[in-house]
Write a structure and sequence with these properties.
The protein has 478 residues and is an alpha/beta fold. Helix content is 36%, strand content 22%.
Length: 478
């Protein structure tokens, strides 16, 4: 059986050329993440074009995820490329636009002096460096280095527990959003989400830019304790959530993150919402050709807990072994899925407020039918991708083949758990629909003539209606 949990790989300097992108696709990348915290629009345009061209050459879909940078607080430029913070020494953060030195560095958050408190902590570079605030003077926050080390330009700044006065959707995000929609990206990720209102504001902005893109899927990145407190409402408003453990593990006690991760995955699945586990999954492979045993267990547990996708960040963006990393992640996922009946959470138990009428009932029936009989696959007909997503969340034990006449949906389907997408002509009748299925499954899947498949569709076939038909069909020779 094909791998069912999907792999999201972040592209960057180590992986944005055509040959590497081709190899990443071959190795198992299902979703290409473009992180708009780094790079410029010209380079992003080139990468998007290369992704589309290469995927077409390989005759396969690729989902492109645009990750908006959001109000991430970062240090400024350092002409020397690196500075050393020495434990016990004084180090200053300033909102003035200056070039960084061993004594002072700029920060892009203008309200830093108002948000910081004397005696409070400031963490740099995902918590690797720790500062204690000693004095606040004008635009400067004077600190003592508690945990020293190397600081490079544009590293993250966290103020755990501080009340930050920042907007989730920044002016830069609006510019990047217009670019992404113009370049036909498939999915959006919004950083630093704190409430469902943040998702609503993003949807409003999308509709203002281009109403035709109003339905683009939005992933809420969970990076702050406020998002955990508002999780239920965020899940209902967004199309999916990302457990962004880097910032989450800084803003809250790191020992709390594993339990919160499991709770988020469980709630997302009960509410039929897409869920991604991200950050440091195979982090040691940035510099090494093999992961640690703990990292392999981390990926396996994310899969067994029911995550739809696992994400690679620096491992593929700047790492030495981007191809090996994707291959390793794919191998770990496959091993884990071989034992999902023993150790996994593959039940289908939607919450009452997640029920979507007949659509959920049909997908539930298809799942049970496939499990009760010797069914080889479930075939789903969809225009928007919603029916395929519901079938994916049902977690059947057989492959899900998703057929769509819409190229945009075809690209999006690549990110859904257990889904193999097919781009087909529009069917007007059940007979045409079955013909498309039989052609596809015989030519491109392990399904053989004589085996049974379950077909799900909305009837009448040529209308855009929710799924209301589940049909058991024996595949014939063509």
């Amino acid at each position: 059986m094909n791998r069912r949990a999907k792999i999201i790989a972040t592209l960057g300097p180590a992986s944005d050329d055509k040959e590497t992108i081709r190899n990443l696709l071959t190795a198992g990348m299902d979703v290409a993440r473009i992180n708009f915290s780094h790079g410029d629009l010209e380079s992003h345009a080139r990468v998007i074009q290369t992704l589309r061209e290469t995927a077409r050459e390989l005759n396969r879909p690729i989902t492109i995820l645009q990750d908006l940078s959001g109000p991430k607080i970062r240090t400024g430029e350092i002409p020397s490329g690196v500075i050393n913070l020495i434990q016990g020494k004084q180090f200053t953060l300033t909102t003035d636009n200056i070039q960084g030195t061993e004594e002072i560095v700029s920060v892009n958050y203008l309200d830093l002096p108002q948000s910081a408190e004397v005696g409070g902590r400031i963490l740099l570079d995902d918590g690797k460096l720790e500062l204690k605030v000693k004095e606040i003077k004008g635009n400067q926050v004077i600190t003592e280095v508690i945990q020293g080390g190397v600081l490079k330009p544009r590293k993250g700044v966290n103020l755990p527990g501080a009340n930050l006065t920042i907007r989730t959707l920044t002016d830069k995000d609006i510019v990047d959003l217009k670019f992404g929609l113009a370049h036909d990206i498939d999915v959006l990720a919004l950083s630093f989400v704190r409430s469902a209102e943040d998702i609503k504001r993003l949807r409003q902005e999308i509709k203002k830019i281009n109403p035709d893109h109003g339905g683009i899927p939005i992933i809420a990145k969970l990076e702050h304790p406020d998002a955990i407190e508002n999780l239920h409402k965020i899940i209902h408003e967004a199309d999916g959530v990302m457990v962004a453990r880097g910032d989450l593990g800084i803003e809250m006690p790191p020992e709390s993150v594993p339990i919160e991760q499991k709770r988020i995955v469980s709630m997302a699945n009960k509410h039929l919402s897409y869920v991604i586990i991200a950050t440091q999954m195979l982090d040691s492979m940035v510099d090494n050709p093999r992961p640690t045993r703990a990292e392999a267990s981390d990926v396996a547990n994310a899969v067994l807990d029911g995550s739809d996708a696992v994400m690679l960040s620096g491992e593929t963006a700047i790492g030495k072994f981007p191809i090996k990393t994707v291959q390793m992640m794919s191998s770990i996922i496959r091993q884990s899925e071989d034992h999902i009946d023993e150790w996994g959470h593959s039940y289908f138990d939607p919450a009452e407020d997640a029920i979507h009428g007949d659509a959920v009932a049909i997908t539930r029936a298809a799942r049970e039918l496939a499990h009760d009989r010797s069914v080889a696959a479930i075939a789903v007909f969809t225009r928007s991708g919603r029916t395929a997503k519901l079938m994916s969340k049902a977690r059947p034990h057989v492959p899900i083949l998703a057929f769509t006449p819409v190229e945009k949906t075809y690209q999006y389907l690549s990110m859904l758990w257990g889904i193999t997408p097919y781009l087909i002509p529009q069917a007007a009748t059940i007979e045409e629909m079955i013909g498309h299925v039989e052609t596809a499954v015989i030519e491109g899947t392990p399904v053989k003539p004589g085996q049974e498949i379950v077909l799900i569709a909305g009837f009448p076939i040529d209308k855009m209606v929710p799924p209301n038909l589940a049909l058991l069909h024996t595949v014939k020779s063509r």
